[in-house]
Structures are given as structure tokens and as C-alpha cells.
Amino acid sequence: MLTSYAAHFDTAAGYLDFARFGPPSRDAVAATARAMEESARAGHTTVDDLMRAEGAARATAARLAGTDAAHTVLLPNASTGLFHAALGIQDGVVLAPRTDFPANHYPWRRAADLGRVTPRWLDPEPGGGVTPDLVRAALTDDVVAVSVSAVDFRTGFRVDLAALREAIGPDRLLIVDAIQAFGVATMAWDAADVVVAGGQKWLRAGWATGFATLSDHALESLQPVLTGWTGVEDAGVFDGTEHLPAPDARQWSITNLSPVTTAAFAAALDLVERHTVAAIEAAIAARVTELTEVVKTCGGRVLSPTDSARRAGILSFTMPDHDPSLVAKALHAEGVTPTVRTDSLRLSPHASTPPEASQRVAAALSSLGS
Fold first, then answer.
1. Who's near 109: CB < 8 A, 6+ residues apart?
2. How far is CA 3 from the centre of its chain?
3. What does the pLDDT look like over 323-341, one tens digit per residue?
4. With contact defined as beta carbons under 8 Å apart, do 128 and 77 qualify?
5. What is the pLDDT of residue 370?
6. In the 3-class helix/strand/coil scheme, how is 250-318 assigned residue by residue?
7. DSSP string, 209-251
8. DSSP code at position 337
9. What is the Cα–Cα distance from 209 to 265, expressed in whole angstroms?
């Protein structure tokens, strides 16, 4: 456990569902409360003061992604960024894994409905993920983009973004959903043209928070179809004419975001930056290793990659001869919160997760045989 980081949270010891939702820190909660209190006492400077959180959050997100604020835009969620990207492609085939989370499917389906793209679905091997070889075998001259999740939501399989970039070449767009990785996994974000992430999971910022980063190639080639009034040049000039989209990542802005949720996002990102992604990642990896051994010792079948270099913070498993819903009941009885699927269970610890969590899981799984 990363003690200095864990000291900022009040999350229950057995909470192992960060891949679904990450309970915010006291810092994020306090930032939310301050912003609401300030808005309740509104004066002539209140709105401008509250809006400054956007600049802070954007700058920190950019640094963590290895880019700058001009190439970064805040968004209310990852899906908004994926729709921006999908609708911004004017023609061509986009490769995307069939096994990905549905949020990564519908933008391409809707863009296909409009005749802008043709999705071509990739089929990774069971238990595996998107590899350079899988993508390379599907490449044809009409492929203009590849869309992947940095970390698979089911198994925690970690995509090698640098190798994927090498496989597709410099001219095709690489679009990455980073929601299961950003802030907790060291990855080559600069290999991607578009990186989108929501803040409600591993970043622990709460709902309605997120961002996207755009490469120069993305800014040049993606049409800003969804640009709103805040995403144009001279946004503060209300002259009744259509303004050109901003030349930087601001062109993906539709309207002002909530300064309250943005304040929480800024606080959450600052916490990650101060404790470092590397330290957070190492602490999570240690917990996943412990939990993996517990599951194996108790007779479970691990579905996630066992090679630590190929997985992130997700451990999926089954208990042979035991329905996942019954295994979940045993875990709940020990104060453990997993993700429960119809065919498996998923444990996802964070850097604040104490060793006690593994002990609770061991007690729960051991009880299945009694």
C-alpha cells in the first residue's frame, strides 16, 4: 500500500471495484464543497474565479499525458471524446476490437450510420487482447484509424501502444480509450493521436469529469463536427456570426463544463501527479499479485494475463463449479466489493488498498468449499 497516497481516502478496505468506479479522495470532496459554497455566495468575480479550475485541470492532465495544454481539452466523459473522434473521420475503415466495452462500439456504429466510416471488428483470442500482429493482419489500404482500449476492461490486458503505432505506421490515426489505465499505468500516450479518459474510475475524480489529448496529426485530419460555442476562435465575442473552430484541442469543446466537477478533477489529478503514476502503478501491481495467488490457492481460474508486463490493475477469474453470483455473496459477506459478471468476477485494487483486502478475499473463497 502506498501509505502517503492512501491517507487521502476513506474507502473501505475490501473495496475492489475501481475498474467500475473509484471513490474520490477527501481532497476531491473538499474541492467540490468549496466550489459549491463559493457559488452559493456568488459575487461579481465568482464565475471567473470558479472557471480557473479548468486551466489547472487541463494543464495537469496534459503533463500526465506527456503533452501540453494546447493539445488537451476537458470533457464530461470518455464517450464524448470517442464520438468527437468517430464523427471527425470523413471516410475510411476503422479497426476496433469486438470484445471492447460498448462505449467503444457505438461511436463507430453511429458514424457508420452517417456514412462517415466503416467499422471492421477485430477478434482477439479469448483471454488476450489487441496485439500488433492482430492489427497488422487486418490492415488494408483503406484503413484510416485503429481504435483500442489501453487496458481491456474484462481482463486487464495492457496494449503495447508504441508497438501498435509502429505496426500501423505514422499516417493512420491511433485512437485510445485510456479510462482503465490513465493515472495508474505507465504507457506510451505519445504514440496515440487521440487519448480520451473519464475521471470516475482510476483517477477517482467522480462522475462528469474527463479529458482528451489530440496530436497535431489528429488536429489536422479530424473534422471538428461537434464544435460548440466555447470551441471557436473569439468565443467571447457575440456578434451573431459563425466563428472558425479553435486551432487547438479546444475545438472539441461544446460548452462550458461544471466548474464544480472540474474543481474535483483538478484535485484528483494533482494527487496523482504528486504521488507519481509509477508509485501508484507499483502499489497496484503488488496487490494484484497477492490477489492472483489467493485466487489460485483457493482453486480459482485466472482469466487475466499472468505476466505482470501484459496486465494492469484488473484481475478476472472464475471459481469452477460455483456460480459467480454465489461467489459474490461470499465476498460480500467478508466486506469485499467485486465486479460481478454472468460468467466471471473482477477484482480491481488501487494504491490505497490494504493487505487486509487479500485476506478478506481468501476467507471468502475458502468458505465456498465448506
1. 119
2. 24
3. 999 999 999 999 999 999 9
4. no
5. 56
6. HHHCCCCCCHHHHHHHHHHHHHHHHHCHHHHHHHHHHHHHHHHHHHHHCCCEECCCCCHHHECCCEEEE
7. -EEEEE-HHHHHHS--TT--GGGBTTTT---SSPPPBPSSGGG
8. B
9. 6
The share of the chain scoring above pLDDT 70, in percent, equals: 99
Of 115, 116, 54, the closest CA to residue 85 belongs to 116
Query: What does the block give as the cell for 220?
Result: 489536422
Q: pTM for this structure?
A: 0.96
Cβ contacts of 187 within 8 Å, gap of 6 or more: 150, 158, 161, 178, 181
C-alpha grid cell for residue 176?
485510445
Instruction: Region of 337 please: left (phi>0), alpha (psi -120 to 50) or beta.
Output: beta
Q: What are phi and psi of 339, to 5 degrees?
A: -90, 135
pLDDT along the chain (370 residues), means of 10: 91 97 98 97 93 97 98 98 97 96 97 96 88 96 98 96 98 98 98 98 98 98 97 96 97 97 98 98 97 97 89 96 96 98 96 97 90
- pLDDT tens column, 192-225: 999 999 999 999 999 999 999 999 999 999 999 9
Q: What is the CA radius of gyration of the chain?
A: 21
Nearest to 85 by CA among 151, 150, 147, 140: 147
Q: Which residues contact 287 (CB under 8 A, 6 or more apart)?
A: 1, 349, 350, 353, 357, 358
Dihedral of the alpha carbons of 303, 305, 311, 312, in degrees to the nearest 10: 30
Tell me the one-letter amino acid at 367: S
Q: Which residue do the cell numbers 479553435 mark?
A: 246
Q: Which H/E stretch holds residue 97? A: strand 93-97
Of 183, 173, 133, nearest in space to 19 by CA: 183
